[in-house]
From TrEMBL, chain A:
GO biological process, one term: transmembrane transport
Lineage: Bacteria, Bacillati, Candidatus Sysuimicrobiota, Candidatus Sysuimicrobiia, Candidatus Sysuimicrobiales
Family: Belongs to the binding-protein-dependent transport system permease family.
A Pfam family that the UniProt record links to this protein: BPD_transp_1
Descriptive protein name: Carbohydrate ABC transporter permease
Topology in the lipid bilayer: Multi-pass membrane protein
Length: 281, 280
């Protein structure tokens, strides 16, 4: 093969690659675009002109979703549960990882392995004992049932990721701070935390998206409509308004919007956070 | 909080249950019912093979495409970062959103998928994708792949980018074409990433629940053709397999079987794949 021919083949391969990548881009973006576009249409318009631009775009569907379909309630519930669980995971995870990563003591490794084993367990298979436990603690149909389960299942990975980061920080750091008279909490808050911030971001994304999106635990633990989180609320909403597609698409768009908005702002942290564990470094 | 429920799930499977009230010790009776008594045994076998098919097709389509996209995105591909971000977007979406969205898209009468086929002059291909027992499970697996494909893409891409360029250059100098470079250099060095993805896919396939539940209902419509172990487990624990009465003993037995399958296979798989990794 002459050099020229090889260059042409290379160019052909590059064009083919771009074609495939573009095809998948459309496969991802077109459904999302169709969803958003349809949310501004009436149901009749979606049925009659599915691919057309909305004739008279209106926010009527959104207003109806927020008011009559209780989306506001579900949304607030999701925020409460996610924020509370994340607080527990980040605070308790940091404290535990700091102790495990910076101090040698008897049982350190054993404790670390114990926390680690939590990552391996598919916790959903333990839903029956968890259900009975929550029933006996009278926590069914409360935010606490969800917060506790999410915190417990998130702590393992948080401790795993943070301990690694704390271990990697040089020993001189706390020695220097200690000589300057800093207390334990001060060392953690002022010296260590700023340095492990990237790890905290990874832990946050790794947990916040699965918690926000979770459907299984609310399905089992929550039965009162006013306590349902967004994913569970969606099933109620889809049952109630099955024939009103304009409303359904508005609901889907509204439910997807917060995550997509955050993703557009910080896609790099999202990708890193959600693949943490499967990708090294 | 984590060890206690797992151990109790095992203990629960050894008792008789009346609804969610524990009765006497039952020994292996729950497992015996699960494996030999109609309809449990039949449902169990059907669901099990659906999980196996889910794993196999997901490996082929989702992870195959993920590997392809990773190869295409490695190197100095134009727009690689934008593609990467777009491909990963659906991974962040709730499976409930994904499930309902595609349920509307695949609606036999009003859904845009069949309408698009009609516009393209392929109306003959249009069908009730989710209502036809021939296509329902495969359609479900493809929707799942639509949501997940960005994940293996990113993992494989990170692996490929970690391969030292000298290796590839040296092979090129020795006259290896792109195909040979991929098979002899890239693929063997990608073994750790492949292992992670195989194991995660296996665990995901055998824990599959949300998408079948949202799109096909708790019984895996049409007529159990999309029934999977996750649905069967949920039904028996919280709703009854065919009767509507919860059966905690049976549900716990299913959980124990699933747990054993996942643990044994991913454990053995990890050991086997790790060994191949070192030799390769």
């Amino acid at each position: 093969m002459s050099v020229d021919a090889r260059r042409i083949a290379g160019r052909g391969a590059a064009a083919l690659a771009q074609g495939l990548l573009l095809a998948n881009t459309l496969l991802v973006l077109l459904p999302m675009g169709f969803m958003v576009l349809s949310s501004f249409k009436t149901t009749r318009e979606i049925f009659q002109r599915p691919f057309g631009w909305p004739a008279s775009p209106s926010l009527r569907n959104y207003a109806a979703v927020w008011e009559t379909a209780h989306f506001g309630v579900y949304f607030v519930n999701s925020v409460i549960v996610t924020v509370a669980a994340m607080l527990v995971i980040l605070v308790a995870g940091t404290l535990a990882a700091y102790a495990l990563g910076r101090y040698r003591f008897r049982g350190n490794d054993l404790l670390y392995l114990f926390f680690l084993s939590g990552i391996m367990v598919p916790i959903r298979l333990a839903i029956i004992p968890l259900f009975i436990l929550m029933r006996d603690l009278r926590l069914l149909d409360t935010y606490w049932s969800l917060i506790l389960v999410y915190a417990a299942s998130g702590l393992s990975s948080a401790i795993f990721i943070l301990t690694g980061f704390f271990r990697a920080l040089p020993q001189d750091l706390d020695s220097a701070a200690r000589i300057d008279g800093a207390g334990e909490l001060n060392i953690l808050m002022r010296v260590m935390l700023p340095l492990v911030r990237p790890a905290l971001a990874i832990v946050a994304v790794y947990n916040v998206i699965p918690i926000w999106n979770d459907f299984f635990f609310p399905l089992v633990f929550i039965h009162q409509d006013r306590l349902k989180t967004l994913p569970l609320g969606m099933t109620v909403f889809f049952g109630e308004f099955a024939a009103n597609w304009g409303l359904l698409f508005a609901g889907l768009t509204l439910a997807a919007a917060p995550v997509i908005g955050l993703y557009i702002l910080m896609s790099r942290q999202f990708i890193k956070g959600l693949t943490a564990g499967a990708v090294k470094g | 909080m984590i060890a206690y429920p797992v151990l109790s799930a095992m203990a629960y499977s050894l008792f008789r249950w009346d609804g969610i009230v524990r009765g006497g010790f039952a020994g292996a009776a729950n497992f015996q019912r699960l494996l030999t008594q109609y309809p449990y045994s039949m449902r169990m076998v059907t669901a099990f093979w659906h999980n196996v098919w889910t794993f196999a097709l997901t490996m082929l389509v989702q992870n195959g495409l993920g590997l392809l996209f990773a190869v295409l995105l490695a190197g100095r591909t134009w727009g690689a970062r934008a593609y990467r971000a777009i491909f990963f977007l659906p991974v962040t979406l709730s499976l409930v959103i994904v499930g309902f969205l595609w349920q509307l898209f695949l609606n036999p009468v009003w859904g845009p998928v069949n309408k698009l086929l009609a516009v393209a002059g392929l109306a003959g291909l249009a069908r009730p994708w989710l209502g036809d027992s021939q296509t329902a499970l495969t359609t479900l697996i493809l929707v799942n792949a639509w949501r997940w494909v960005g994940f293996p893409t990113i993992v494989f891409l990170a692996g490929i980018q970690a391969i030292p360029e000298e290796y590839v250059d040296a092979a090129r100098l020795d006259g290896a074409g792109p195909g040979a470079v991929f098979r002899r250099i890239v693929l063997p060095l990608l073994a750790p990433q492949v292992n992670v993805i195989v194991i995660l896919t296996f665990i995901g396939a055998f824990n599959w629940f949300e998408l079948p539940y949202v799109m096909q209902g708790v019984t895996g419509e049409p007529s159990h053709t999309t029934d999977v172990l996750g649905l069967l487990f949920y039904r028996s624990a919280f709703g009854g397999v065919d009767t509507g009465n919860p059966d905690v003993g049976l549900g716990s037995a299913i959980a124990v079987v699933m747990f054993a399958v996942i643990l044994a296979t991913s454990g053995l798989g990890a050991v086997y794949l790790r060994r191949r990794e070192i030799e390769g």
